Amino acid sequence: MPATKHTAVKPIAKPAMSHTASAEADLALLTATPAAVPAASSTGTGVVSKQVFLRKFVENALRQVKEGSIDEYRKLVQVFAFSRHASPNAAAAEAKYAESVVPWISALSENVSVLDITYRELVQTVLGSDWVVVADDRLVHRYTTLVLQIISAHPEWVPQAMHAMARWFSFGARGRDAAEAGRVHGRVHVLVQEIYRAIPTCGSSLVAALSDAWPFKAAKTNMQVLFVRNALKIIEYAAGVRREVLRLVLNHVIQIDVEVQIELEDLESDSEQGEDGG
After folding, report:
1. Predicted model pTM
2. Which of 102, 187, 196, 259 gives a 20 to 30 Å CA spacing to 24?
């Protein structure tokens, strides 16, 4: 099939602008509210595509932090912030987030090399976002890639990444989340496995994250079961932490059993006292 020819569309000519006015227009474009970025924007220096705009915005925001200005940086952080509990209409909120954040993922991906401890708030927001529950597989794939890029460039973020992922291993314990649990857990395991494959020395961080995220002894049984099941799933692809994970599972099972025994003994004691009093 012959290639289709496309005729470039020239932007409508604008009156000439002074150098100062042009600079101000460019600055206004680069500091616009991120969520309001159009597909293509016109400035005094010509047409700027959306992707170029986003890349420049990210570059400027990160550079300005070094210069002591954080206004644009805070806007960038908010772009990636997402909580599934923030809106009563979760499906609509997820769809809106997916549509808005995907282009920014590409822009940030081009700047992962500079994301050191200076940008802790941004990286922690990226890692802590509820992106794993979003139905859009395109977003999940790109977000997974972004996290892997950050971890590969800066292994010091591995502990935070592992903690961010481990918290999802009890997702689905509440009835309304049960239908999504398998999909969410699968996504989390894909990312954890890729991190472990890229950085085999991350085992201690993974075990520490599991230990910290483990449900309390008083948590509901279904939550305990979900977490144990996901913890055991990890040793299928991370053999290096097999012993540590099994030890965690055993210790928590013993703690729960001891707690149950104590409660049973308390109930028997109360029953006996009641009979004596009768």
Report:
1. 0.77
2. 102
